[in-house]
Amino acid sequence: MIRSLYETHLFVENLEISTQFYSTVLGLKQCYYEAERRAAFFWIGRDKEAMLGLWEKPKDEIDIRHFAFRCEKEFVLDQAVDFLQRHNLKPYNFLNDDTSNPMVFSWMPAIAIYFDDPDGHILEFIALLEGDSRPEQGVVSYEDWLSSTGVKS
Fold first, then answer.
1. How far apart, in whole angstroms, are the C-alpha atoms of residue 103 and residue 145?
2. Which segments of 5-140 does DSSP mark as H helices, in order?
3. What is the pTM of this model?
4. How many Å is the maximal CA-CA distance in the chain?
5. Other C-beta atoms within 10 Å of 142: how many?
6. Cα–chain-centroid distance for residue 24?
7. pLDDT tens digits, 32-51
8. Distance of CA 122 to the CA centre of its chain
9. Which of 2, 7, 11, 41 has a beta carbon 3.0–4.6 Å from 32's, enabling a disulfide?
10. Are strands 51-56 and 7-12 parallel, antiparallel or unpaired?
11. What is the mean pLDDT of residues 44-62?
């Protein structure tokens, strides 16, 4: 019955700042803007494939949310941290151990790096990895994941 997630919404304090962030920094294509209702919508990936809606609300009505953008493995491994730092965003990993090294969720398996949007929503770049899941390993570095699986990067 359910095939994928199509749409999610976030409450933001300043629609213009958030619209700038999601369009200019993250490169999402704005597909609709409604000034009267203080809302903006963006395509994620190809047009009409998935959508993000932003709704301006007072700060006390904003609850912090989390979601992940699916990316290519090479981007998460080789480019995401530099991309985020160039845009004055602080990358952090799942362990929040003061490093910006992407980590592998062995139960999926997938590699991810986190960052926050202007309202503090927790965003993630994630890439699925080839190979079998290994939930017993927990969250590990990519190097540890590779050595445990025998897979070459």
1. 9
2. 15-20, 73-74, 80-86
3. 0.93
4. 56
5. 17
6. 15
7. 999 999 999 999 999 999 99
8. 8
9. 41
10. parallel
11. 97
